[in-house]
Design a protein that fits this description.
Layout lengths: L2 E3 L2 E7 L5 E6 L36 E4 L6 E4 L38 E5 L16 E2 L7 E4 L3 E6 L13 H19 L6 E8 L11 E7 L4 H17 L3 H12 L3 E4 L3 E4 L8 E7 L11 H18 L4 E2 L2 E2 L4 E6 L13 E6 L1 E3 L2 E2 L4 H6 L8 H10 L2
Antiparallel strand pairs: 1-2, 2-3, 3-6, 4-5, 4-8, 6-9, 7-8, 9-11, 10-11, 10-17, 12-13, 13-14, 14-18, 15-16, 17-18, 19-20
Helix pairs in contact: 1-4
InterPro entries: GalP_UDPtransf1 (IPR001937), GalP_UDPtransf1_His-AS (IPR019779), GalP_Utransf_C (IPR005850), GalP_Utransf_N (IPR005849), HIT-like_sf (IPR036265)
Catalytic activity: alpha-D-galactose 1-phosphate + UDP-alpha-D-glucose = alpha-D-glucose 1-phosphate + UDP-alpha-D-galactose
Cofactor: Zn(2+)
């Protein structure tokens, strides 16, 4: 079964262990359906939900509630053995090698445009038959546990291991946006999912364990702490003013202008008034929309070029000995929760870096790590001025 969205053809299949994989094709002969990527996975992988050799049922990761904060913490001990900085000839995100009968790669096709698949080492996973109910460990009322019944997906931006999101074409960037929107819509509709977070980690300084250009999508069975805090602030602002907080923030930045670094027909990028990180920028639509699926075709097309321009400038932000330093960063889409507060939410992308100068990283100080009392090493205006210089 396939479906076509805008210029993209989506073809789902399953990997050998039962995980889902989706090809997002924007090139011929695949986008028209004249040809189809390889759909079978020849690897001799056991079903991921099959009992082990001793007949014990599979168990998924667990959530534990911190009694001091009320936050849910995922316990995913199996991730200790996940792939870590493999050699180039063992890259699990690369396309299959031509004429190879078997390789332990995640993508069966010998080439692809964009691919999304379930993570082999997920922090969150719904196990069939497991009930998503809170239980008490050792009958202790303070020790609440529940299955980490969410989903983790990997998004491969390119089949070229040497590429990056910044180097893809606007056409391919549009395909990636379609993949983000497609998966957000599907995961939001999944039972038990409260929030979908699409993000990218780039650079060894961030702790990336696979250098192939890729991002991730987490479907969480709870509201993440930052999301809950943002939603609370938005609701309080609505109650006090009758207005949308995200709209008022955007209009204030546009009126002031000093921190606005990039504008297009449908998008605005600015350094936030209270930026935490040495480099931080928010990218938001001009129109009030709750999430990526709500974007129009024109907004998606404009985002493809605007995002790439923003990434181009960020990769010029730091220069060492007249050589630009590719910026290590984390970027993530703050989207409306799946089941609450959607009318109070406004879509935004947050992108930030831990690099504060060439060869120097921002390490969280004790007061930052301990009690989340942030201290900035620069000012938002300095960050904005540098990004404007690179226009």
């Amino acid at each position: 079964m396939t479906d076509t969205t805008a210029h993209v053809r989506v073809t789902p299949t399953h990997l050998a262990d039962g995980r889902e994989l989706f090809y997002f094709d924007d090139s011929e002969p695949y986008v028209s359906g004249a040809a189809t990527r390889r759909l079978d996975d020849p690897r001799p992988l056991p079903d991921r939900f099959a009992p082990d050799e001793q007949g014990r049922p599979v168990t998924g990761p667990e959530l534990r509630r911190d009694p001091l904060t009320g936050e849910w913490i995922a316990m995913a001990a199996h991730r200790m053995n996940r792939t870590f900085l493999p050699p180039a000839d063992a890259n699990p995100l690369a396309p299959a090698k031509p004429r190879a009968t078997y390789q332990d790669g995640e993508i069966p096709a010998e080439d692809y445009d964009v691919v999304v698949f379930e993570n082999r080492f997920p922090s969150l996973m719904r196990v069939p038959g497991a009930t998503d109910e809170v239980a008490l460990l050792d009958d202790e009322p303070l020790w609440q546990t529940r299955p980490a019944a969410g989903r983790c997906e990997v998004v491969c931006f390119s089949s070229d291991p040497s590429a990056s999101l910044r180097t893809v074409t606007p056409h391919r960037m549009r395909t990636i946006i379609e993949a983000w929107a497609h998966r957000t819509e599907a995961l939001n509709a999944t039972e038990g999912i409260e929030q979908v977070f699409a993000f990218e980690n780039r650079g060894k300084e961030i702790g990336v364990t696979l250098h192939h250009p890729h991002g991730q999508i987490y479907a969480l069975p709870y509201l993440a702490p930052r999301t809950a805090t943002m939603l609370e602030a938005a609701r309080a602002h609505r109650a006090a003013t009758g207005r949308l907080l995200g709209r008022d923030v955007l209009e204030a930045e546009l009126r002031h202008g000093a921190r606005v670094v990039l504008e297009s027909e449908h998008w605005v990028a600015y350094v936030p008034f209270a930026a935490r990180w040495p480099v931080e920028v928010h990218l938001v639509p001009r129109r009030d929309v709750p999430d990526l699926p709500a974007l129009s075709d024109d907004e998606r097309a404009d985002l493809a070029t605007t995002y790439l321009e923003l990434l181009r400038r960020l990769d010029l932000f730091f220069v060492d000995d007249e050589t630009a330093i590719p910026l290590p960063y984390i970027s993530g889409w703050h989207q409306a929760p799946a089941r609450q507060g959607r009318d109070d939410w406004r879509l935004s992308l947050q992108l930030f870096s831990v690099l504060r100068a060439p060869g120097k990283l921002k390490y969280l100080a004790g007061v930052e790590s301990g009690v989340a009392a942030w201290v900035s090493d620069t000012t938002p205006e300095r960050i904005a001025n540098r990004l404007k210089e690179l226009a």
